[in-house]
Amino acid sequence: MVDLGEATDRKQQSHLMKNRKLTVIYVENDPLLRSLIANLLRENESIANVHDFDSGEPAIAFAERFQADVALIDFALGTNVMDGIAVGTQLQSLNRSLGIVIHTQHSVRTVDAVAKLEKREAWSYFQKRADNNIDQLVAVLKSTSSGISGFFGDDDRGATSGELPKNVNLSKRQHLVLSMLATGVEPKTIAQNLNISFESVRKELSIAYSVLVPNPEPGMDLRVTSILRYQQLNNSIQDA
């Protein structure tokens, strides 16, 4: 039997969620895009506040002191800084009810290879495209803030990452470091887990990247491409 009191409470909570204005944490390292999107969000009647940051560290510092409903985060935030997945993971560890929306031009497959989005709660993917509009983005922010995950963009998860180089030769340590990186563990944490220096991890990754992606194209994300090819390598070994 359905408890009418509980059913009424759920309806009231759903109604409140639909009408509640959102507080958004926005992390984007492109200053022009960040200014444009932040201003458009602030003008939307469904948004209460937008706190925008150019990298993960200040966003995390903000979240340690203040609450938000959802975070909109670029996937690639620059070199030698936390990427969007690491930032989102840290933010959600501070606020378990915080929704995370990864906002990027990278494909679903590229992001999912690093983040394993389907295994995360209240994580969504929203692809940067010329035909996006702010109402679509706000709708995704609202649904994700209520705990609903989704993929909004071209879903290419069945595609391949390009041809593997022949005679891939990785050391045991490189296999171990790559396997941890592929599950979303950051290099500093890998160093701690393996009881080796951060510089050693960076060196192993640099060698592994050069083995897996010997001829990178201009602008290619070596980390993501290497993870994709490493997974492709493992799948080929398992199928052999």
Any guess at the CATH architecture of the largest domain? Answer: 3-Layer(aba) Sandwich
Q: What is the CATH class of the largest domain? A: Alpha Beta
Order of helices and strands: HEHEHEHEHEHEHHHH
Query: Total number of helical segments?
Result: 10
Give the helix level as a range of percent.
40-55%
Biggest sheet strand order reads 2-1-3-4-5-6
> Taking Cα atoms only, what radius of gyration do you get, to the nearest Å?
20 Å
What's the overall geometry? Answer: elongated
Q: Briefly note the CATH topology name of the largest domain.
A: Rossmann fold
CATH homologous superfamily heading of the largest domain = Response regulator
Overall pLDDT score: 80
The structural class is alpha/beta
Strand element count: 6
Can you give a write-up of this model?
With 240 residues, the protein is α/β, with parallel strands linked by helices. The protein has 2 domains: 4-152, Rossmann fold (3-Layer(aba) Sandwich); 172-239, Arc Repressor Mutant, subunit A (Orthogonal Bundle). It contains 10 helices and 6 strands. The chain has helices spanning 4-19, 31-43, 56-63, 84-94, 108-115, 134-145, 172-182, 187-194, 198-212, 222-239, and strands at 22-27, 47-53, 70-74, 99-104, 123-127, 150-152. Strands 2-1-3-4-5-6 form a 6-stranded parallel beta sheet, sandwiched between helices. β1, α2 and β2 form a beta-alpha-beta unit. α7 (172-182) packs across α9. The N and C termini lie far apart (54 Å). Residues 6-15 and 156-161 have low confidence and may be disordered.
